[in-house]
Amino acid sequence: TAVMSAVDPSRAPLGRTLITSTVLGPPPPDLDRAVRDHLAVLYGVPTYDWELLAAHHDPEAVPVMAPPHDLRRPVRVLAGLYVCGDHR
């Protein structure tokens, strides 16, 4: 999840916030509620009045990370160059 309007304020109307989130796996039937509940915990604010602008399901959008998951791989590639992303 990321606050896109914090990265680029032109992404949302003045006084509004745009948040984007990625959900892995097949979407549950109650996707909107499940995501809102999780985002409420992550952001520490109520999300019941948030407006869902769009939901897209693309089963091939995120590459499969087959086990075993080596979560302690170094992220520094070179001085000043780091690997990042939700695939790590």
Describe this structure in words.
By secondary structure, this protein is an alpha+beta fold. The chain has a domain at 2-61. It has helices spanning 4-7, 31-43, and strands at 2-3, 19-20, 76-78, 81-82. The strands form 2 sheets. The chain has a two-stranded antiparallel ribbon. The protein has a two-stranded antiparallel ribbon with strand order 3-4. The radius of gyration is 16 Å and the shape is globular. The model has no long low-confidence stretch (mean pLDDT 89).
What descriptors fit this protein?
about 90 residues, alpha+beta, two-stranded antiparallel sheet, about 20% helix, FAD-dependent oxidoreductase
Write the layout of secondary structure elements.
Elements: E1 2-3, H1 4-7, E2 19-20, H2 31-43, E3 76-78, E4 81-82
Antiparallel strand pairs: 1-2, 3-4
Concise account of the structure shown:
This is FAD-dependent oxidoreductase. The protein is α+β, with helices and mostly antiparallel strands and 88 residues long. It contains two helices and four strands, in the order E-H-E-H-E-E.
H/E element sequence: EHEHEE
Low-confidence blocks of residues: none
The N- to C-terminal Cα distance equals 15 Å
Mean pLDDT across the residues is 89
Structural class: alpha+beta
Global Rg: 16 Å
Strand content: 5-15%
Rough outline: globular
Residues in helices, as a percent range: 10-25%
What's the total count of β strands?
A: 4
Largest sheet, if any?
A: 2 strands, antiparallel
Helical stretch tally = 2
Protein name: FAD-dependent oxidoreductase
